[in-house]
Amino acid sequence: MGRGMGYALAAVALWSTVASAFKLTLRHLAPETLLLVASSVSLGFFALLLRRSGRMGAAWRRFRGDPIRFLILGAINPFAYYLTLFHAYDRLPAQEAQAINYSWGILLALASPLFLDRPLRRRDLVAGVLCYAGVLVVATRGDLLSLRFTDAAGVAYALASTVLWALYWILSARYEGEIVGLFFLNFLVGTVLLTGYVALTGPYGAIDGPGIFGALYIGLFEMGVTFWLWLRALRLSPSTARVAYLIYLSPIVSLGLIHLLVGEPIYPSTLWGLGLILGGLWIQRSERP
After folding, report:
1. Tens digits of per-residue pLDDT, 92-108?
2. Strands, DSSP E only, in the chain?
3. Angle, helix 94-101 to helix 268-285, in steps of 10 degrees
4. Against a cut of 0.90, is the pTM above it?
5. In b/e form, how buried is each residue of 70-103, taking b as 16+ CB within 10 angstroms?
6. How many domains does the chain have?
7. Distance CA 275, CA 278 (A)
8. Which residues have a Cβ under 8 Å from the Cβ of 82 and sit 6 or more positions away?
9. What is the domain range of residue 229?
Protein backbone atom coordinates (compact mmCIF):
# COMPACT_ATOMS: atom_id res chain seq x y z
CA MET A 1 0.00 0.00 0.00
CA GLY A 2 1.42 3.36 -1.05
CA ARG A 3 1.70 6.45 1.14
CA GLY A 4 -1.20 8.10 -0.66
CA MET A 5 -3.52 5.21 0.13
CA GLY A 6 -2.36 5.23 3.75
CA TYR A 7 -3.21 8.92 4.13
CA ALA A 8 -6.59 8.30 2.49
CA LEU A 9 -7.47 5.43 4.81
CA ALA A 10 -6.46 7.52 7.83
CA ALA A 11 -8.72 10.34 6.64
CA VAL A 12 -11.65 7.98 6.08
CA ALA A 13 -11.14 6.42 9.52
CA LEU A 14 -11.24 9.83 11.20
CA TRP A 15 -14.21 11.05 9.17
CA SER A 16 -16.06 7.90 10.22
CA THR A 17 -15.94 9.03 13.85
CA VAL A 18 -17.31 12.53 13.45
CA ALA A 19 -21.05 11.75 13.34
CA SER A 20 -20.71 10.00 16.70
CA ALA A 21 -18.54 12.86 18.00
CA PHE A 22 -21.15 15.43 16.90
CA LYS A 23 -23.98 13.63 18.66
CA LEU A 24 -22.07 12.88 21.88
CA THR A 25 -20.70 16.42 22.17
CA LEU A 26 -24.10 18.00 21.54
CA ARG A 27 -25.30 16.26 24.70
CA HIS A 28 -23.02 18.63 26.61
CA LEU A 29 -22.77 21.80 24.47
CA ALA A 30 -25.13 23.94 22.44
CA PRO A 31 -24.42 23.95 18.68
CA GLU A 32 -23.15 27.54 18.84
CA THR A 33 -20.69 26.83 21.65
CA LEU A 34 -19.49 23.64 20.00
CA LEU A 35 -18.84 25.40 16.72
CA LEU A 36 -17.01 28.34 18.30
CA VAL A 37 -14.56 26.07 20.12
CA ALA A 38 -14.11 23.71 17.16
CA SER A 39 -13.64 26.52 14.66
CA SER A 40 -11.01 28.16 16.88
CA VAL A 41 -9.08 24.89 17.06
CA SER A 42 -9.20 24.47 13.27
CA LEU A 43 -8.04 28.05 12.79
CA GLY A 44 -5.04 27.38 15.01
CA PHE A 45 -4.22 24.16 13.14
CA PHE A 46 -4.25 25.78 9.68
CA ALA A 47 -2.31 28.79 10.99
CA LEU A 48 0.37 26.39 12.28
CA LEU A 49 0.57 24.65 8.88
CA LEU A 50 0.98 27.97 7.10
CA ARG A 51 3.64 29.16 9.56
CA ARG A 52 5.65 25.97 9.18
CA SER A 53 5.51 26.12 5.39
CA GLY A 54 6.30 29.83 5.22
CA ARG A 55 3.12 30.63 3.28
CA MET A 56 1.31 32.83 5.80
CA GLY A 57 2.33 35.99 3.92
CA ALA A 58 0.91 34.61 0.67
CA ALA A 59 -2.43 33.92 2.36
CA TRP A 60 -2.66 37.48 3.64
CA ARG A 61 -1.80 38.89 0.21
CA ARG A 62 -4.62 36.86 -1.34
CA PHE A 63 -7.03 38.13 1.32
CA ARG A 64 -6.08 41.76 0.70
CA GLY A 65 -6.44 41.21 -3.04
CA ASP A 66 -10.02 39.90 -2.83
CA PRO A 67 -11.43 40.36 0.70
CA ILE A 68 -15.12 40.12 -0.30
CA ARG A 69 -14.59 36.65 -1.73
CA PHE A 70 -13.03 35.33 1.46
CA LEU A 71 -15.61 37.05 3.65
CA ILE A 72 -18.41 35.31 1.72
CA LEU A 73 -16.68 31.91 1.79
CA GLY A 74 -15.95 32.18 5.53
CA ALA A 75 -19.53 33.21 6.23
CA ILE A 76 -20.70 30.03 4.49
CA ASN A 77 -18.02 27.66 5.83
CA PRO A 78 -17.59 27.26 8.75
CA PHE A 79 -20.15 29.76 10.08
CA ALA A 80 -23.45 28.98 8.34
CA TYR A 81 -22.73 25.43 7.19
CA TYR A 82 -21.55 23.91 10.45
CA LEU A 83 -24.05 25.86 12.54
CA THR A 84 -26.85 24.46 10.40
CA LEU A 85 -25.36 20.96 10.41
CA PHE A 86 -24.95 20.91 14.21
CA HIS A 87 -28.58 21.96 14.66
CA ALA A 88 -29.54 19.04 12.40
CA TYR A 89 -27.53 16.62 14.55
CA ASP A 90 -29.00 18.19 17.69
CA ARG A 91 -32.54 17.34 16.54
CA LEU A 92 -32.13 14.14 14.51
CA PRO A 93 -30.56 10.76 15.23
CA ALA A 94 -26.95 10.85 14.06
CA GLN A 95 -27.59 8.15 11.44
CA GLU A 96 -30.31 10.23 9.79
CA ALA A 97 -28.46 13.55 9.85
CA GLN A 98 -25.37 11.88 8.39
CA ALA A 99 -27.27 10.10 5.61
CA ILE A 100 -29.12 13.26 4.49
CA ASN A 101 -25.92 15.31 4.59
CA TYR A 102 -24.26 12.93 2.12
CA SER A 103 -26.70 14.04 -0.56
CA TRP A 104 -24.80 17.33 -1.06
CA GLY A 105 -22.72 15.73 -3.84
CA ILE A 106 -25.79 15.16 -5.98
CA LEU A 107 -26.98 18.72 -5.40
CA LEU A 108 -23.57 19.97 -6.53
CA ALA A 109 -23.79 17.91 -9.73
CA LEU A 110 -27.31 19.17 -10.49
CA ALA A 111 -26.28 22.79 -9.91
CA SER A 112 -23.05 22.58 -11.91
CA PRO A 113 -24.64 23.46 -15.30
CA LEU A 114 -25.87 26.76 -13.85
CA PHE A 115 -22.71 27.82 -12.04
CA LEU A 116 -19.73 25.84 -13.36
CA ASP A 117 -20.50 25.49 -17.08
CA ARG A 118 -20.58 21.71 -16.83
CA PRO A 119 -23.18 19.78 -18.86
CA LEU A 120 -25.96 17.97 -17.05
CA ARG A 121 -25.78 14.31 -18.02
CA ARG A 122 -28.57 11.76 -18.00
CA ARG A 123 -26.75 9.83 -15.29
CA ASP A 124 -26.82 12.97 -13.10
CA LEU A 125 -30.62 13.03 -13.29
CA VAL A 126 -30.89 9.31 -12.52
CA ALA A 127 -28.48 9.74 -9.63
CA GLY A 128 -30.52 12.68 -8.33
CA VAL A 129 -33.74 10.66 -8.32
CA LEU A 130 -32.05 7.79 -6.46
CA CYS A 131 -30.36 10.09 -3.98
CA TYR A 132 -33.41 12.09 -3.00
CA ALA A 133 -35.54 8.96 -2.87
CA GLY A 134 -33.00 7.81 -0.29
CA VAL A 135 -33.35 11.09 1.59
CA LEU A 136 -37.14 10.57 1.74
CA VAL A 137 -36.71 7.01 3.00
CA VAL A 138 -34.37 8.20 5.77
CA ALA A 139 -36.39 11.29 6.70
CA THR A 140 -39.71 9.40 6.95
CA ARG A 141 -38.14 6.20 8.36
CA GLY A 142 -39.61 4.29 5.46
CA ASP A 143 -43.17 5.69 5.72
CA LEU A 144 -43.14 7.17 2.23
CA LEU A 145 -46.89 7.15 1.62
CA SER A 146 -47.70 9.41 4.56
CA LEU A 147 -44.67 11.68 4.04
CA ARG A 148 -44.67 12.23 7.79
CA PHE A 149 -41.24 13.41 8.93
CA THR A 150 -40.05 12.37 12.38
CA ASP A 151 -38.61 15.87 12.93
CA ALA A 152 -39.41 18.26 10.09
CA ALA A 153 -37.17 21.04 11.46
CA GLY A 154 -34.25 18.65 11.83
CA VAL A 155 -34.70 17.41 8.25
CA ALA A 156 -34.88 21.03 7.04
CA TYR A 157 -31.60 21.82 8.83
CA ALA A 158 -29.94 18.74 7.31
CA LEU A 159 -31.12 19.61 3.78
CA ALA A 160 -30.10 23.24 4.25
CA SER A 161 -26.61 22.07 5.21
CA THR A 162 -26.32 20.26 1.86
CA VAL A 163 -27.27 23.46 0.02
CA LEU A 164 -24.66 25.47 1.94
CA TRP A 165 -21.90 22.88 1.42
CA ALA A 166 -22.62 22.61 -2.32
CA LEU A 167 -22.71 26.42 -2.57
CA TYR A 168 -19.35 26.64 -0.80
CA TRP A 169 -17.71 24.27 -3.29
CA ILE A 170 -19.29 26.05 -6.25
CA LEU A 171 -17.94 29.42 -5.08
CA SER A 172 -14.49 28.02 -4.28
CA ALA A 173 -14.20 25.84 -7.41
CA ARG A 174 -12.12 28.38 -9.34
CA TYR A 175 -9.81 29.23 -6.44
CA GLU A 176 -6.25 28.66 -7.68
CA GLY A 177 -4.24 29.45 -4.55
CA GLU A 178 -2.91 27.31 -1.72
CA ILE A 179 -5.76 25.22 -0.28
CA VAL A 180 -4.42 25.39 3.28
CA GLY A 181 -4.39 29.17 2.94
CA LEU A 182 -8.01 29.08 1.77
CA PHE A 183 -9.03 27.00 4.81
CA PHE A 184 -7.09 29.32 7.14
CA LEU A 185 -8.87 32.41 5.79
CA ASN A 186 -12.25 30.65 5.89
CA PHE A 187 -11.85 29.70 9.53
CA LEU A 188 -10.46 33.12 10.43
CA VAL A 189 -13.54 34.86 9.02
CA GLY A 190 -15.88 32.20 10.40
CA THR A 191 -14.41 32.32 13.91
CA VAL A 192 -14.68 36.12 14.02
CA LEU A 193 -18.32 35.93 12.89
CA LEU A 194 -19.08 33.18 15.42
CA THR A 195 -17.50 35.16 18.24
CA GLY A 196 -19.69 38.15 17.44
CA TYR A 197 -22.77 35.97 17.01
CA VAL A 198 -22.31 34.21 20.34
CA ALA A 199 -21.56 37.50 22.09
CA LEU A 200 -24.77 39.02 20.77
CA THR A 201 -27.11 36.05 21.17
CA GLY A 202 -25.62 33.93 24.00
CA PRO A 203 -25.14 32.53 26.55
CA TYR A 204 -25.80 28.96 25.44
CA GLY A 205 -25.88 26.93 28.63
CA ALA A 206 -23.24 25.22 30.72
CA ILE A 207 -19.80 24.15 29.50
CA ASP A 208 -18.26 20.99 30.91
CA GLY A 209 -15.19 18.82 30.42
CA PRO A 210 -16.66 16.18 28.09
CA GLY A 211 -18.17 18.90 25.92
CA ILE A 212 -14.89 20.77 25.59
CA PHE A 213 -13.01 17.55 24.82
CA GLY A 214 -15.54 16.69 22.11
CA ALA A 215 -15.32 20.18 20.60
CA LEU A 216 -11.51 19.99 20.55
CA TYR A 217 -11.69 16.60 18.83
CA ILE A 218 -14.16 17.85 16.22
CA GLY A 219 -12.14 20.99 15.54
CA LEU A 220 -8.91 19.07 15.12
CA PHE A 221 -10.08 15.98 13.26
CA GLU A 222 -13.32 16.86 11.44
CA MET A 223 -12.30 20.34 10.36
CA GLY A 224 -8.50 20.22 10.46
CA VAL A 225 -6.20 17.20 10.31
CA THR A 226 -8.53 15.12 8.16
CA PHE A 227 -8.61 17.69 5.33
CA TRP A 228 -4.80 17.82 5.41
CA LEU A 229 -4.60 14.00 5.26
CA TRP A 230 -7.03 13.92 2.34
CA LEU A 231 -5.09 16.56 0.40
CA ARG A 232 -1.87 14.61 1.00
CA ALA A 233 -3.57 11.44 -0.22
CA LEU A 234 -4.72 13.09 -3.45
CA ARG A 235 -1.26 14.52 -4.10
CA LEU A 236 0.68 11.31 -3.39
CA SER A 237 -1.63 8.75 -4.98
CA PRO A 238 -1.00 7.79 -8.63
CA SER A 239 -4.77 7.32 -9.06
CA THR A 240 -7.05 10.05 -7.75
CA ALA A 241 -10.13 7.97 -8.59
CA ARG A 242 -9.02 5.04 -6.41
CA VAL A 243 -8.52 7.37 -3.47
CA ALA A 244 -11.80 9.25 -4.07
CA TYR A 245 -13.91 6.10 -4.00
CA LEU A 246 -12.60 5.26 -0.51
CA ILE A 247 -14.92 7.97 0.84
CA TYR A 248 -17.82 5.52 0.36
CA LEU A 249 -16.43 3.48 3.26
CA SER A 250 -16.93 6.33 5.70
CA PRO A 251 -20.74 6.28 6.18
CA ILE A 252 -20.76 2.49 6.49
CA VAL A 253 -18.10 2.44 9.21
CA SER A 254 -19.77 5.46 10.79
CA LEU A 255 -23.07 3.60 11.21
CA GLY A 256 -21.31 0.92 13.23
CA LEU A 257 -19.69 3.54 15.46
CA ILE A 258 -23.00 5.36 15.91
CA HIS A 259 -24.54 2.12 17.16
CA LEU A 260 -21.61 1.25 19.46
CA LEU A 261 -20.73 4.71 20.81
CA VAL A 262 -23.98 6.69 20.67
CA GLY A 263 -26.25 3.72 21.37
CA GLU A 264 -28.66 4.31 18.50
CA PRO A 265 -30.43 1.28 17.04
CA ILE A 266 -29.78 1.36 13.30
CA TYR A 267 -33.13 1.59 11.53
CA PRO A 268 -33.69 -0.55 8.41
CA SER A 269 -34.91 2.63 6.71
CA THR A 270 -31.49 4.22 7.30
CA LEU A 271 -29.75 1.30 5.60
CA TRP A 272 -32.11 1.38 2.61
CA GLY A 273 -32.00 5.16 2.33
CA LEU A 274 -28.23 5.38 2.69
CA GLY A 275 -27.88 2.64 0.09
CA LEU A 276 -29.93 4.68 -2.38
CA ILE A 277 -27.93 7.84 -1.62
CA LEU A 278 -24.57 6.11 -2.04
CA GLY A 279 -25.86 4.36 -5.16
CA GLY A 280 -26.81 7.71 -6.63
CA LEU A 281 -23.41 9.16 -5.80
CA TRP A 282 -21.70 6.15 -7.38
CA ILE A 283 -23.67 6.57 -10.61
CA GLN A 284 -23.05 10.29 -10.68
CA ARG A 285 -19.29 9.95 -10.23
CA SER A 286 -18.75 7.04 -12.60
CA GLU A 287 -17.08 7.89 -15.91
CA ARG A 288 -16.58 11.54 -14.89
CA PRO A 289 -13.12 12.75 -16.02
Report:
1. 999 999 888 888 877 77
2. none
3. 20
4. no
5. bbebbbbbbbbbbbbbbbbbbbbbbbbbbbbbbb
6. 1
7. 5
8. 35, 38, 39, 223
9. 3-285
